Amino acid sequence: MKYTFLILLIILIRPGFLRSQSSGNSISGRQKLIHLNRNVFMDTVWEGSVPPDSIMVYYYSVRGKYPESSETIRKQAQEYLETTHRIYSGSGYITFRFYIDHNGQMLKRVQVLQTDSLYKEYIFPGNLIMDLFVFLKTLHAWKPAQDIQQVPPYYINLMSFKIQNGTLVDIIP
Amino acid sequence: MNLIIQTGCHPAGEISVSSKCKSRSFQDSLIRRYVDSGAEKLPYIYNNPVWGRYMDSVLAICPDVAEAYQLKAVPAIKNGEYTKAYQLDTKAAELDPAQYLSYLGFLKCIFTKDYSGAITDFKKAIQIVPGGGEMDHGFYFYLGICYLKLGNYPEASFNFNKDFSEQQHGDSTREIHYNALMYMGITKLESRDLDSARYWLLKSLRIYPELPEANYYVSVVYHIENRMDLEKKYLELAKKSIQDGYRMNEDNMYYVNYPYQITLYEVNQRLAELK
Question: By C-alpha distance, which of B148, B149, B184 is closest to B163?
């Protein structure tokens, strides 16, 4: 039994399996990014009733774009970022991909995708990701997933923030 | 690489397949076999995790089938995986620029709001396919949108005019697409040429009176002119249109907001400010 526990421990702490982003990319006292193989997450906790990988319905299949224009969201996000008084850097796209349940709530498990402005893999400074995530969590008008029998009551939504030299310039969708 | 059907070619076979791959009809037969009769039949179609394997099967036989790269990229662009999407779509555009370079420009213009990148692609596409189109619009339509979003209003107007000319083919009585007219109106509005903005926006509304964005931006014109009664009238029209289900009617608007696209939220906000 104790050997089983030891083996499990070794698997979990081996390099590359599960690690939080280096201190240079995180804010002390705040949430850290979780690197799981080649994917990056804000949180990996899953509270849904079916495995997350079994959910293949995306926002566009349920007309689930956030019900405000991209420009409105950009202005709100920009206003929020200004309140932090932080100077940001980097150019490209920060995308959060997450699940919405039948109450229109964003679930904890959130993936982060990062791309530079030429669409190459890129790592943004952690403070910008964290601050955008804090803003994202202020959005509460997501369309609830339909609770139909035999269909998991979740769908996948996403929001991308286009950044140019540390400034938020656009929102996708 | 996980393939749907593994191909085990001996050297003689490789030569044969390699020469076959240059044939468009052979490439099309692979698409029919692996995509039309395979991937397209999957539950959740391109969001099925094995979607890409069907394209890999095509590419294992013929590595230069542009359509397979483009199809493999479909879930990636729609689901926010831009690194993967553009790697594949760029490859498709390199292999078959006549077919996929304007598509690449379209993705940059509408999906990732990369207006400078889209201009580069569309300018090249115009050289390769003069008079070509992408997603129901000519290349100049997208160039107009890109310049509008970059704040280069003279260049935006120039390109929208070129788009109008292409749509009319020398027949000035021919109807122009309402969204093209609307974007010309927005261009004029952004450059504070209010009379011209009103002219183009109302012209768009004559073709499609319920177009929410055109009604909304006419109301902005009246707002700037401080004509509250007309501002409110057009906001109410925009509101009713959205509530009745009218939209811009662009194929990709379910995936992504088009530039200047509005929602009921913006209309209600402005109506509330009027009270």
Answer: B184
Judged on CB neighbours under 10 Å (0-12, 13-18, 19+), A134 is middle
Per-residue pLDDT, B205: 98
CATH code of B96-174, in short, is: 1.25.40.10
Q: d(Cα B173, Cα B169) in Å, to the nearest integer?
A: 10
The predicted model scores a pTM of: 0.90
State which CATH number among 1.25.40, 1.20.1070, 1.10.10, 3.40.80 fits the domain covering B1-93: 1.25.40
Contact A173 B257 (CB under 8 A): yes
pLDDT at A11: 45
Buried b (16+ CB within 10 A) or exposed e, A36-74: eeeebbbeeeeebeeeeeebbbbbbebebbbebbbbbbb
| Nearby residues of B108 by Cβ (< 8 Å), 6 or more positions away | B114, B115, B117, B118, B121
Cα–Cα distance, A104 to B34 (Å, whole number): 37
pLDDT in tens, B137-166: 999 999 999 999 999 999 999 999 999 999
Q: Which of A63, A110, A115, A163 to mutate: most B Cβ within 10 Å?
A: A115
**Residue spans of chain B under pLDDT 50:** 6, 8-12
Res. A14: pLDDT tops 50: no
Above 80 in pLDDT, residue A29? Answer: no
A115 to chain B: nearest residue by CA? B83
Look at the domain B179-275 and name its fold: 1.25.40
pLDDT tens per residue, range B175-191: 999 999 999 999 999 99
Question: CB distance A57–B44 less than 8 Å?
Answer: yes
B3 CB contacts (<8 Å, ≥6 apart)? B53, B56, B57, B60
Query: Which segments of chain B belong to CATH 1.25.40.10?
Result: 96-174, 179-275
The whole-number pLDDT of residue A161 equals: 98
Q: Does ipTM surpass 0.90 in this model?
A: yes
User: How many A-B residue pairs are in contact by the CB < 8 A criterion?
Assistant: 77
Inform me whether the C-beta atom of residue A70 falls under 8 Å from chain B C-beta atoms: yes
